[in-house]
């Protein structure tokens, strides 16, 4: 009798959607072949070449000293999950927002100087690279004292 | 006869407990490669870009320079569910155009990517089909001014 009750409970849980097994794949944007970035040369390659080779970036933002960062990225994942509750929210948001950098996106960030020449190339998660680039430099006490001395003179 | 009835009942039950769905989500209208083709770095002004492409989705100030973004997002989702097993696949791709201006609002660079049309309804085990999207050759200054944008999905170019 107990077994029958347990079986009925499991069957009821499964049939009403309390227990579900999900195989989910989600992808954003087309991946960039690494070979397309290898021919870029720091100090020699231009923004025009980068735009030609990689297409339009996902994000563009300003860096210190008049430099500009351009970011290309993509996201592709497969997940297998067991849910023990009624799913009220989609496991993967299909929408994409340009307003903020999606922390799932990995790819390339290329920086250019005021002459549009390539300064550096970074590869990894775009949000992490952006955070690193936007981080304020640590306060330089010696430099500050020097500036104050010069102003006093 | 009994076996046939059982098979029919099982099939009917499976049919009742299974479902499938597809959905599509788009943001903004598709971008036109022909319109982007009209932009000429060194000649076209910001005002003319606005007349050709309309209002941008985003304006980024880059010191005295600026960049405008135009985009179109298309996400396709397909799913299949049998009793407790659910398979979901989501493929989101974008058309993007970035135009860069100097301090005099004169167009300096254009970067474009057209991939939204390539998004697909698939199941998770199927391999993604990505079209060849990026021009392979490296332009010099002259050829960069005349590089054309492949029509249709999966094209990208810069001028």
Helix and strand arrangement:
The complex is a heterodimer of chains A (153) and B (159).
Chain A: H1 2-15, E1 20-28, H2 35-38, H3 47-54, E2 59-62, E3 68-83, E4 106-112, E5 118-125, H4 126-134, H5 141-152
Antiparallel strand pairs in A: 1-3, 2-3, 3-4, 4-5
Chain B: H1 2-17, E1 18-27, H2 33-37, H3 46-53, E2 58-62, E3 65-82, E4 85-101, E5 107-114, H4 141-146, E6 155-158
Antiparallel strand pairs in B: 1-3, 2-3, 3-4, 4-5, 5-6
Kindly describe this structure.
The complex is a heterodimer of chains A (153) and B (159). Chain A is α+β, with helices and mostly antiparallel strands. Chain A has helices at residues 2-15, 35-38, 47-54, 126-134, 141-152; strands at residues 20-28, 59-62, 68-83, 106-112, 118-125. Chain A has a single domain, classed as Beta-lactamase Inhibitory Protein, Chain:B, domain 1 (2-Layer Sandwich), CATH 3.30.1450.10. Chain A is built from five helices and five strands. The longest helix of chain A is centred in the N-terminal third of the chain and has 14 residues, at 2-15. Chain A is elongated and about 95 Å long. Chain B has a domain at 27-73 and 92-122: 2-Layer Sandwich (Beta-lactamase Inhibitory Protein, Chain:B, domain 1). Helices cover 22% and strands 39% of the residues of chain B. Chain B is built from four helices and six strands; from the N terminus they run H-E-H-H-E-E-E-E-H-E. In chain B, strands 1, 2, 3, 4, 5 and 6 form a six-stranded antiparallel beta sheet that branches. The radius of gyration of chain B is 23 Å and the shape is rod-shaped. Classes of the chains: A alpha+beta (153), B alpha+beta (159). Strand 1 (20-28) of chain A pairs parallel with strand 4 of chain B, so a sheet runs across the interface.
